[in-house]
Design brief:
This protein has 238 residues and is mainly beta. It has no helices and 20 strands. The strands form five sheets. The protein has a four-stranded antiparallel beta sheet, with no helix packed on it.
């Protein structure tokens, strides 16, 4: 269950695909699945801003290229940024800066609230998922090789980088819930979903468990985002 103390349960949004194209799925706290958005090309990173707008990195090619969409709570979708190379992972920090993992260049870009773009980190091996914890640490999943393997890095606010987890198959999306648990979407050991996609849950203590497993051949989980927690409604007056 995804239950946060003193708040209503958070919904989990997951980007993925099936035979019909790219979609964004929605999971309620009890695991009920529905489709939030469809008709995308290759939806990748997901991130909510403080206003509850969902940002989606849609990996493209050719004339249109890659796009970052902004989806309002009512479902209205607009273009936030275009002309990017290979944006995949997205994450907002507490100051409202949008961080974007660029898969092909091995860089992490930072968009300030005024739209100015800078480079936060470079020289990574195919960075994908991004997520900030409540202490301001940035977690980054990287796609590994047969020798190095896949790694999840942790960047402290002062920029110091350490390894948080290794030995996963193909970790892609990362997301923290309101209780500080880290959820990791593992695309599948052969990268195609044949063996099945997994979503793992890391407790703050580091203990790992499986949240969702055995996704079918034509469905796969890529990136994750938790809807911001909402305050509980006031009690009814009698």
């Amino acid at each position: 269950m995804l239950i946060c103390s003193s708040t209503l349960a958070q919904n989990l949004y997951v980007s993925g695909g099936d035979a019909g194209g790219g979609k964004v799925f929605k999971f309620t706290w009890d695991g009920l699945q529905s489709t939030f958005a469809s008709g995308l090309r290759q939806p990748q990173g997901l991130a909510f801003d403080s206003a509850g707008n969902l940002f989606v990195a849609d990996y493209g090619s050719g004339v249109i290229g890659s796009i970052i969409y902004k989806c309002k709570p009512d479902g209205l979708r607009t273009i936030f940024a275009s002309g990017l190379d290979s944006p995949v992972g997205l994450a907002f920090d507490s100051a409202g800066n949008l961080f974007v993992a660029d898969y092909d260049s091995g860089s992490i870009f930072e968009f300030k609230p005024n739209g100015v773009r800078g480079t936060f980190a470079s020289g990574l091996r195919q960075p994908q998922g991004l997520a900030f914890d409540s202490a301001g640490n940035l977690f980054v999943s990287t796609y590994g090789s047969s020798v190095i393997g896949s790694i999840i890095y942790k960047y402290k606010p002062d920029g110091v980088r350490t390894i948080f987890a290794s030995g996963l198959d193909s970790p892609v999306g990362l997301a923290f819930d309101g209780a500080g648990n880290l959820f990791v979407a593992d695309y599948g050991s052969d990268g195609s979903g044949v063996i099945g996609s997994m979503i793992y849950k890391f407790k703050p203590t580091g203990v790992r468990s499986t949240f969702v497993s055995g996704m079918a051949l034509n469905d796969s989980f890529s990136f994750l985002a938790f809807e911001p927690a909402r305050p509980a409604p006031p009690p009814l007056r009698r």
